[in-house]
Amino acid sequence: MDAITRIKQLGMPRRNNELWTFFPVNKIPNILSADGNCRIADECSSSEDFANEDDFAALLPIVCNARELVKTIDDGENEMAMLKCNNDFGRTVLNVGKNAKASFEILDNKVMHEICAERFDINVAEGAELEIFFANPANDLPLTFRHFDIKQAAHSTVHFANVLQDAGIGRISARVELNGEGANFDYRSLNILKGTASKHQRLTILHNAPETVSTQFVRNILDENAYASYDGHVVVGNSCSKVNSSQLVNTILLSDGPSVSVKPVLKIYHDDVECTHGNTVGELDKDQMFYLTSRGIPSDKARAMLTKAFAKELFLELPEGPAKKRLMQVI
Amino acid sequence: MLSIKNLKASIEDGTQILKGINLEVKPGEVHAIMGPNGSGKSTLSKVIAGHPAYTVNDGSVTLDGKDLLSMEICDRANSGLFISTQYPTEIPGVNNVEFLQMALNSKRAYQGLEPLADADFKKLCEEKMAMLEMDDRYRDRGVNDGFSGGEKKRNEILQMAILDPKVSFLDETDSGLDIDALRIVAHGINQIMSPEKAVILVTHYQRLLDYIKPTYVHVLRHGKIILSGGPELALKLEEQGYDWIEEN
Q1: Are strands B216-221 and A243-253 parallel, antiparallel or unpaired?
Q2: Three-state DSSP class for B29?
Q3: Which residues does chain B have within 8 Å of residue A297's beta carbon, measured at their own beta carbons?
Q4: Of the residues A125, A258, B120, B124, which has the fewest C-beta atoms closer than 10 A?
């Protein structure tokens, strides 16, 4: 089934679809109608079968004839690069060879149309290490979708990290398959939001092999009327022993206006696994504020110091490299 | 210098902890405050510093004639007040040295001075750390993050040494210190002390007062100072406890 047929089958996202529970779906222009400048293409340029694709955002770039970039890193090679599609709709296919080591920063599109959608298909071969990261400090795109389809072979590692602090509405979705023993997926996301910013993350991590590891660590710093949501699904297969999966979302609300929604879903079909999830929501620690101000530091600076510390902690465990350097710099 | 008059303070549920404290501290003096657990010693330092968990119901606190109670917490510190709490707060992610530099430069800004140049701050910091026999590990860590009890107390005295306050209120600075650390910290406090400054020590034991000679010793009980005397009072308390005071 081609992508156009499939997206028409799915229809426009609705709140009663669990993939879109928290997203303000009424803000998405109806691309299935003939109106608007991002309407669906007449013919699908891709010959792939999308019959099993359930996520509207994953199909969106395909049906809008995204410009495609294919990047391959050969076995054992090292590469560090930036990825940018320069269009409203983009698709990147990234193949990381066996034991290769790669680091990619995804840059924001500067296109300012009503909607922007990108899809990344990432295949990480055995023993490969990939870090993929992005930080969008000031590019206030009105509505953005980024979907990642990641497949990892045995003993591969992916560090996926991002900082979101623009004022628009955005959704990051990922479907991660840990297909080989010992594969490790590490996700770290920082949302520093204010105004009417609305950011949503929807991850599905499939542990399809024993001794696979996944980490989801999200921190939100929310002010004014910002809204953030995190919807994280973990599925552990029935032959997958010694799986280790953790999910933690920490939120600091800087005022009375912002809100956060968190939904952990764990489907575990094996007994010998360790899977955890946690969620905290609070204000800045009053004792820490008192301590800093009692040393003469004005309260606005003390708040900034504590907020920065909360943010920095998220990325401390990233390996030394371009991602850690860049994201720490952004904070 | 520091004048506390009829200070009364309560916690959120209305329970009054301080029930009329009076204390006059002059330059060059060391005051030791002793008393049983729960008598209000720790509360006193926090109320003076402006901790939001306490409400002042009555009384006044002035430092060199300035009304401390009407000031923001940071302004009280920048006016020359330093408090060291019994359990210094851990702040992971805020670098210890960056915090110290920010605190010092905040005080300088309050005084209308330019920030201290990085090189000068580094030199000052190294000098004070050497005085307290602190190693470089303190630099790279978060404020009190993962510090042992003794390390935290030493870090408090480092802050005191760098911020150079007029009045320091040190709450059980000797707790958690081994014999060597106690000697080093006490030596540090004596080095910082001068005829223009004052120190208020809260302690349960005479051992700290063997190193830092108090000018006056006060007994705080049920939120009030019930007895004051010279250094000999601490020795008597160590020997006989507090019960005899009520008996008399």
Answers
A1: unpaired
A2: coil
A3: 74, 99, 102-103, 106
A4: B120
State whether B103 and A301 contact (CB < 8 Å).
Answer: no
Q: Which of A289, A292, A303 to mutate to test the interface with B (most CBs of B within 10 A)?
A: A292
Alpha carbon of B12: minimum distance to chain A alpha carbons (Å): 15
Q: Are residues A311 and A330 in contact, defined by beta-carbon separation less than 8 angstroms?
A: no
Q: What are phi and psi of A19, to 5 degrees?
A: -70, -15
ipTM, 2 dp: 0.94
Cα–Cα distance list, B19 to A65, B36, B146, B220 (Å): 76, 16, 36, 11
* Structural domain containing residue B182: 2-94+166-247
d(CA B159, CA B131) in angstroms, rounded, equals 12
Q: Is the pLDDT of residue B247 over 60?
A: no
The more confidently predicted of residues A139 and B117 is: B117
Contact B130, B158 (CB under 8 A): no
pLDDT at A167 over 90: no
Give B163's contacts in chain A (Cβ within 8 Å): 295-296
| pLDDT confidence of residue B105 | 96
Predicted local confidence at residue A59, as pLDDT: 94
| Tens-digit pLDDT profile for residues A121-165 | 999 999 999 999 998 755 566 788 999 999 999 999 999 999 998
Q: In this predicted structure, what is the pLDDT of residue B234? A: 83
**How many structural domains does chain B have?**
1
Start-to-end CA distance of chain A, whole Å, equals: 44
As a whole number of Å, the CA-based R_g of chain A is 20
Comparing CA positions, the residue from A185, A174, A203 lying closest to residue A263 is A203
In a domain, B131, yes or no: no
Q: What is the CATH classification number for the domain harbouring B214? A: 3.40.50.300
Asked if residue B30 belongs to a domain, the reply is yes
Q: What is the dihedral of CA B188, B192, B198, B200, to 10 degrees?
A: -20
List chain B residues with CB under 8 Å of A294.
49-51, 73-74, 76-77, 83
Does the distance separating the beta carbons of A313 and B92 come in below 8 Å?
Answer: yes
Give ∠ CA B185-B186-B190 in degrees, rounded to 5.
120
Q: Does A296 touch chain B (CB under 8 A)?
A: yes
B72 inside 8 A of chain A by CB:
yes
